[in-house]
Protein: Citrate synthase
Organism: Deinococcus ruber
Amino acid sequence: MTNIAKGLEGVLFTESKLTFINGTEGILTHLGIPIQEWAENSTFEELSLALLSGHLPTAAELAHFDSQLKANREIPAELLTIIAGYPKGISAMQALRTAVSHLALFDADAENTSADARMAISIRLIAKMSTIIAAIRRTQQGLEPVAPRIDLTHAANFLYMLHGEEPTPEQARLFDIALVLHVDHGMNASTFTAIATASTLSDQYSAVVSAIGALKGPLHGGANEAVMDMLDEIGTPDKAADFVNAKLDAKEKIMGVGHRVYKYFDPRSRVLRDYAAHVAEKQGKSHYYQILEVIEKTVVDRLSSKGIYPNVDFYSGTVYSDLGIAKEYFTPIFALARISGWCASVNEYERDNRLLRPDAVYSGAVDQHYVELQDRQ
């Protein structure tokens, strides 16, 4: 009997030097370096360049890359007008998907699929993604978009464009760490989708739009938003254990818990947990963190034997919330970080490209014949 790998689990289709995951031991590395070290010592800009180039950049290389990002932050005025005209109340991911597709129309190199063009477009997309997301949020609120600044880091500039005021160094660094933790995660659904699109020799914009479409689905993006909904539903820490136990007894899912790959703690969740505790205390929202603590303990007590633990989404929502980011923009923030991983993975695959064309086991009828319409029952 033919074995079918549902969800392509365990199927190997390519090699990659970018990201390694050992889900059993809770290990995540980029270029062989643990994610904890990237979060502690690096920045979004540096990790993005490292993945795009395949090596730890020199100071000069990083400075050049940073200057390229800053020089490409602005988006065309025509695109700002288009974004401002989007219907109010639409999905933030729907708006982002459409805006990135629109952006391609203003890029003279959009159809160029050479390695150099893909790299140049990758840099432009990484730079402009934050400007697009901030513009969508502000225009949906009836506010004027805030122009980017070139004297701020990538993380600080996004928060500035989003809120119209410069963040504190601590807020900027916290957001930067959150971006670092989400930059890449192996062959997840959106990264695979981007590669599948690019494998047809389609352009970089189409690959990224495809990835955004995949991320938009609630089984991939959106879990951290669902965590915040769960916290609001629970209300207070004293109700958390009963809530979790009732859900588990009813065989229902706990948001932010469990992962297709990890059978131990997601290492990114361990990094965010400490920052979530610190920021929540400073912002006077410690009850959220206290609820999460109770949920985590209850879940680990009941499900750790099955390899089910909190994932990165478990704490990221509270961090974003404390930074003043509306929960419906948590998934676009995911895209803001993952754009670097998408582009790096596409560029890597394209160096030895082969059209992705999987097969399926046919399980339909056989030996049938066409029946004229008037003779059908």
Summary: Residues 38 and 180 are 7 Å apart (CA to CA).
